[in-house]
Design brief:
6-stranded antiparallel sheet, two-stranded antiparallel sheet, 8 helices, Bact_HTH_transcr_reg, alpha+beta, transcription, 31% strand, 264 residues, Chorismate_lyase_/UTRA_dom_sf, CP_lyase_PhnF
Length: 264
């Protein structure tokens, strides 16, 4: 998930404030408090006191550097600390934003990403990032009640809320039953709408398993996560009205962007 020049946040070790900074608004030398720490205090106060609302895009690094009268190296140290404190996060190509509260994400008989995100007042979106026909592994075959080696269609998607990546999903379907589903997903950006086109839109959750682990390199790239962050992994089986499995899925959620709620 690289970052733009104006929103990059680095977590490398930093030296003391570099010479040449010309302190501006709200920061001062000779106080015994490093300039970057003063910037953290000012921006944190803006966030906590509501002057910077959740979802607000921060000014660019250049603009913030000019506001505080510091160079961009000093500013990046402040932004790194705000990121570590989970107050802001950078999204590649969009900038750095005040972090929003986690999405309340119910897991129940009908779990639909777009509906859940919309209820939270956020704009859902999704896009296909890959698809292929492959032989079913023993795990996938058991979930879909197929024989190991049978052809399955794999569809990989990334889903976002207000442009912020929330989850990566890998979904497997019986190839003969869901042929061309990947083309429909690419056209609609929605698994549910694609399944509706095939007459399978009223699917129900049959089984859910939830685990957690550190995000791997690919997940960090796609979800715009720094090293050391956690993903929640949801393995699920969805079926039709007769409880015949339609889909086996593995979704990896950015753990600090959602709050899973298990419905009973």
């Amino acid at each position: 998930m690289s970052e733009t020049d104006d929103s990059a946040v680095t977590h490398q070790p930093f030296p003391a404030d570099p010479p040449g900074d010309d302190p501006g608004e709200d920061v001062a030398r000779g106080t015994g408090v490093a300039l970057w720490k003063q910037i953290v205090e000012r921006l944190e106060a803006d966030i906590v006191e509501g002057r910077l609302a959740p979802g607000t895009r921060l000014p660019t690094e250049m603009e913030l550097s000019e506001r505080f009268g510091v160079n961009r190296h000093t500013l990046r140290r402040a932004l790194a600390m705000l990121t570590d404190k989970r107050l802001v996060e950078a999204t590649p190509g969009r900038g750095t934003f005040v972090k929003e509260p986690p999405i309340r994400y119910p897991i129940g008989a009908r779990t639909r990403f777009s509906e859940i995100v919309s209820r939270e007042g956020r704009a859902p979106s999704g896009r296909l990032i890959g698809s292929r026909i492959e032989p079913a592994t023993a795990e996938i075959a058991e979930a879909l009640r197929l024989a190991p080696g049978d052809e399955v269609l794999r569809v990989d998607m990334i889903r976002e809320a207000d442009g912020v990546p929330i989850t990566i999903g890998s979904h497997w379907y019986e190839a003969g039953r869901c042929r061309d589903l990947d083309l429909l997903v690419a056209a609609t950006g929605s698994v549910t709408r694609a399944l509706e086109t095939l007459g399978l839109g009223d699917y129900r959750r049959l089984e859910t398993r939830i685990t957690a682990r550190l995000a791997d390199e690919e997940e960090r790239r796609l979800l715009s996560l720094p090293a050391g962050r956690t993903v929640m992994v949801i393995d699920a089986i969805n079926g039709d009205a007769q409880r015949r499995p339609i889909q086996y899925s593995r979704a990896r959620f950015s753990a600090d962007r959602v709050q899973l709620v298990v419905k009973t």
